[in-house]
User: Fold these one by one.
Assistant:
Number 1:
Amino acid sequence: QKEYQFVVVGAGSGGMAMTNAIARKFGKGSVAVVEPHDIHFYQPMWTLVGGGIKKKEESARPMSSLLPKDADWFQTQVSKFDPDNNIVQTANGDALKYDFLVVGVGFELNIPQIKGLQEGLDGDPMVCCNYSYKYVDKTYKAFQNFKSGNAVFTQPASPIKCAGAPQKIMYLAHDYFRRNGKLQDANIIFNQGLPKIFGVAKYAAVLTDICKQRGITVNLNTNLVEVCHDKRQAVFQKVDKGTPEFVTYEMRYGKRKNPIVCGGGQRSSGVTGGQTLKTLLTRYLKYEMMHVTPKMSPPDVLKSSPLAGPAGFMTVNQHTGQHTKYPNVMGIGDCTDIPTSKTAAAVAAQTGILKKTIQAIMNNHDPAKVAHYDGYTSCPLITGYNSCVLAEFDFDLNPLETFPIDQGKERRTMFHLKKDFMPQLYWNLMVKGLWNGPGIVRKLAHLGFSK
Ligand code: FAD
Ligand code: UQ1
């Protein structure tokens, strides 16, 4: 058994920032970090890789080059959380005892939850996915090889990281087809499991308008359930909440000539899993290319631990990041139940909050008195090869915009902010634990008068 003042689990966006911040403040030997992977990824770049704007290698750096020299790195997974004894067990057989634990294990992709998706990703060059380093470079190849037919983009109903990413790549596809003379032969379809195109009304209105103007068909409450890549067919289920009767199935297939729909129309009956969610009708859709966003969840080791609530997320105070049951445990990022959209931008703001929370706990103060996370999150909604709507908002889904201009407009400046500035900010400040989000910039930009 080894003992540390701090143990950090996961060295992704949140864990890496916290490890560096803690090592800087508390010095050599104070912190152990458990992370199995050799490589740290700047995942927000994967949308740009999918669009052929960046090379995937630019999103990857050796873990060893980013972790602080003063931290002890255990290159293995945590296999068990034992918060009652202040211990984490690792797959290598180490038992690490801590005074304080910071957990940032993120989301893992649940590809097998969609039948045939793994086979599609491995066997069909036209099935792609920006959410994985392994598959991300298939997307741009699919753009290039696309000739005509349905270009389908999917998003599940369950929580995912960067909820805008499934449609950002669709707008890039639209722009790519437009610039390369393929648009008239393309039928672009967004099949989204959720009931809204985006959670924040202001940006949802902008995106709905963009889809209308560009002839993109949006089917809400429409979930991908199966991929049959040998026939290039995808199976979708339209879901609705609560209604006891079947309602008319109305998934649309676009207004362009010859949308290709094959078969479909099977009714399945009954309430799914005892819930009020009803599966209404199954449809088969032929795709020429398909960008799939798989379902995601925290890793099993967290889900099955005492740190997780019934939904599998780590239960923390949404304003302080402190665990609801174990006061010496903090959570950061995608694996927590903090009710905001899961992004690196949110993680940046949470880094600043956790620093305050840890300090307060060490001084026997109430963290709620010094740390108050407002839910800040941001989604740079790329809408083309030189345009972006920079969505920023809080827990109440109210816009919380950094710049004193209307960020609901598509702008070239925001595209460059995303493409050129954000990677610099990430590699030079965020991973070092030195970027706590743009709160300060926002206050200065608004001269203290608003927000
Ligand atoms: P991660 O960064 O995913 O890190 C989790 C870490 O935990 C990993 O290193 C993993 O190896 C480790 N881990 C897992 N299990 C264990 C275990 N048992 N033991 C030890 N370690 C473990 N965000 C934005 O702000 N803006 C964007 O434009 C944006 N676009 C995105 C586009 C795409 C395609 C994707 C995939 C993400 C995007 N994001 C964006 C989201 C952002 O990348 C994530 O929200 C962020 O990385 C979450 O950080 P995290 O620390 O919670 O998890
Ligand atoms: C941000 O802080 C951040 O984390 C580094 C991102 O992830 C890559 C973002 O996408 C955005 C938009 C922010 C917010 C920062 C500014 C300057 C608006």
Number 2:
Amino acid sequence: MSKVIVLTGAGGVLCSSLAKALAKQGHKIAVLDLKLEAAEKVAHDINIAGGTAIGVVANVLEKASLETAKKEVNSKLGSCDILINGAGGNHPLGTTSNPHLLEEDLQNTTEGFKTFFDLDSEGIQFVFNLNFIGTLLPTQVFAKDMVGKKGCSILNISSMNAFTPLTKIPAYSGAKAAVSNFTQWLAVHFSKVGIRVNALAPGFFLTDQNRALLTTENGDLTPRGNTIIGQTPMGRFGEPEDLISTTLYLCDDASSFVTGVVIPIDGGFSAFSGV
Ligand code: NAD
């Protein structure tokens, strides 16, 4: 059955791929993004491939912007059945320069060098808000359409660092842990009104956000990139397509008794102790 599916951050790498895959199943797709041009490009690609999609500007940190987007979605596509909370990411202001603090770091005066003690609370807040509040607000706005309707669900995007924090990115790790926790909380809260809530926890996918952290300009792996591949039993980064089948399953009635789960899609990263 064709559903109306709203994806936030769907102008980006991972969720644009999910939007296109869901459109191929015959669903009507609302591509939401802070960048209207990126959202419209994805919607255009879907429409010329024979699907149905609209590109809509929306800021997941502003409820009024989401309410305006919802009006457009409702009038052009209908009431929302499925919400995928894809907008998220890290920011350099919430990132330390080194994985571990060394005594000599406190004397390091190199421009841009940051220890834990230099982290900017506004940077931490930005990352926390983008990932956690940016999941909560779209849910408040779009899940109202789902209450009491059959076949509705929400899919959040968590991360590996929600299970065990990654070095250097305390804000992003904490925020994604909050997204996983919220997924379980919401699954219980919505369990009587017919809305299932689940999450994907992608492993490491090369995207614009992390390319500079994981690869050098000539495409070789950085030390961090090498560590990740060394810790990933399948020995590769994920491709956006690796997320599709689990997304289709969690958005489909085939998973009608599945709620509150966070599924790692990580080539075995979270199962590997490193030994
Ligand atoms: P991306 O940067 O390609 O896409 C993110 C999109 O979100 C961008 O199009 C951006 O414009 C949009 N966005 C940013 N702020 C927004 C806001 N305030 N309101 C609306 N849209 C906003 O990133 P991606 O790699 O496709 O990541 C998608 C999701 O997957 C994120 O939640 C990310 O944290 C998560 N994730 C990514 C990886 C990875 O390896 N790439 C791993 C685990 C989890």
Number 3:
Amino acid sequence: VEAEIPDSQKAAWKKHSAQGFKTKEEFENEAVRHIETTLARSLYNLDDGAVYGGTALAFRDRLVIDWNKTQQNQANADQKRVYYLSLEFLMGRALDNAMLNVGLKNVAKEGLAELGFRMEDIISQERDAALGNGGLGRLAACFLDSLASLDYPAWGYGLRYRYGIFKQEIVNGYQVEVPDYWLDFNPWEFPRHDVTVDIQFYGNVRKYTDDDGKQVSVWENGEIVTATAFDVPIPGYSTPTTNNLRLWSSKSSSGEFDFQKFNSGQYEGSVNDQQRAETISAVLYPNDNLESGKELRLKQQYFWCAASLHDIVRRFKKSKKAWKEFPQNVAIQLNDTHPTLAIPELQRILIDEEGLDWDTAWSIVVNTFGYTNHTVMSEALEKWSVPLVQSLLPRHLQIIYEINLHFLQYVERTFPKDRDMLRRVSIIEEGGSKMVRMAFLAIIGSHKVNGVAELHSDLIKTTIFKDFVKIYGEDKFTNVTNGITPRRWLHEANPRLSELIASKLGGYEFLKDLTLLHKIEAFADDKAFRKEFQDIKYANKVRLAKYIKEVNGVSVNPSSLFDIQVKRIHEYKRQQLNIFGVIHRYLTLKAMSPEERKKVQPRVSIFGGKAAPGYWMAKCIIHLVNEVGRVVNNDADIGDALKVIFIEDYNVSKCEIIAPASDISEHISTAGTEASGTSNMKFVLNGGLIIGTCDGANIEITREIGEDNIFLFGNLAEDVEEIRHQHTYQGVLLDESLEKVFDAIHGGMFGNSDEFKALTNTVINNDHWLTSADFASYIKTQDSIDVVFKNQEEWLRKAIVSVSRMGFFSSDRCIEEYAEAIWNAEPVKP
Ligand code: KOT
């Protein structure tokens, strides 16, 4: 097409095309223009919000220039493209990231100062894009940053939820959920009203034989909902490559509303269709590690998969290549089983719409998809009821049955003697009610399956997917240990530490190759370096203490040991173990004389995280933490020796303040339950040590940083089943110290004890999560932390050495592993 445009026209466009600001003056010019014209504000009608708006729009213009070029360049490159399908993208704020990635933060800072504003105030005006629950969504966001930074031609596909994860308020110690309507000002998205896809639901399948005697299936008479694309530019760090995140929004296909109903006086009925359609992309399901089984969730999944595939196929067809070349041009990665319907959808497009035969189509499908598993917990494994799929997606159910038939025939031929195998591996779970097992469909429809840390990848092969290893062999299963982007989680969150490292390494190259961090190990014994490192940690703790004072109204001493656990509240993550440990510490302090108490290492125990609205036990844990805080923080005997803080509404931007401020952070899941964990990586990268179980990525963190630099405790994954078995048949042997903690709770020390009965009873009756079984080991390890912390020189050495050995955990390394072992994709030169 480029060749068809006359030279004169090209020249005119070139002359006028946007250049993007480079200097402070040019930045101010752009920002003020946007404030005065785009936002219609003036110097006399101004606040931080408006200045944020102007700054964001100035940077947005800057991103769009590179974004357009990148898209053009990648289209011309004729290389394989990567598509990352995720129902969650937990992006957080975009402005600071954009400024740093394009290398113009200092320019903007000086410009803002001249205009009378402080950078921190402006940055903090932005609301988080919180389209995710926790680790899975944040991983997708880190991957987008790495894909762009490494110049991969990659797109993210997701849903444009009108409401992100709810905002958490703590009212009288209880979690209250408030809707997160985040879209009233979002300068980072571009509506593409010309990019729409009509998506069908319900209806029926009609079969006929065409003129050539071929059986044809047509899915018809369904309800149609329109998907509209909203694009978000994703700037790479220190490269012009700017990739695209495409989010789909749902609306009624039949125009605005039903005029006939409206004109005949049925005002409410007239908007029904419209509302039904818009509901699909209205709200993010707030469950982490739990599947809900709700029809609306299945609708979301199909709506997003079908729109994305239509888009991907449309782009491929423009190349005019033969269908068999599809997998050489397209790699689609499934972020957990949420996008598994993309598998039968691509098969449907290829056989029903493009007329390919089953086997040719199926081989294209399998070679296109890769599936990442993020959890082994049974309550999180997706299953959809067959009648529900039958009614919503009748043609897909037929295709799923046919996939299953081909698969089971193969299994039967390969394992003729193992009759039970067919029942175990069938995509359809028989029994009370029939269910479609999405993980099995994802494995069968993909060429590679990966777990997210070594232990986890081993566990899926030996437990939930054991039979599939027998069927397909070991090679189909692989590991890609998770990582985090050092741009956001070091450079943006902890600029002083980033600067200190850069000063020793002679520049910021380490932000693109994090393994270069190993060079700072040489400074672990350098007095001046240690002092600087310690000062930075202290300043970060002061910043967090200030935040806590402002929001919680509690004064915490920044010299105390900051002990932090921030993540979704879940029994398997064991915040209950932490808070019971805190109560034990409180009881111990209370039993001491004031002189003895003075010798104890002062601590601040900081908690944060959301509970799924329907997860009652998790809400009990939040309530207990808040009640313990109320009692301990107001106990004059205790003073600075112990403070307990619950940080409300934990999210990405709060994590950027919290992660740099820890001395110790807690990653204490029951062994074998946390697939990877990624906050463990953020804390160590920021110079904190961790207390953890032998679980998820903690194991590889230990391998990298050395066992002397981590506080491990608790039973091992391989022993958990046996311990649970003992609990069932011999009862729980309650730890003695834990019993005293329970006595205090039951005695009403933290308010009405009835409120916490469920929490203590599950430990006493089952101890499924090994809270009691691991308690003694946990307390002992916490005590040893106090001892080591008193020796600040030793502590600093451990922290510095740990940072220097964290290079492996960059999400850049993950992306390179995916590209090499799963996608067979290469970067496109910008
Ligand atoms: C499952 C169902 C719904 C919503 C979320 C999940 C989920 C989240 N499954 N696993 N995760 C977490 O994924 C992270 C990224 O891989 C892991 O670090 C973490 O251990 C998982 O719990």
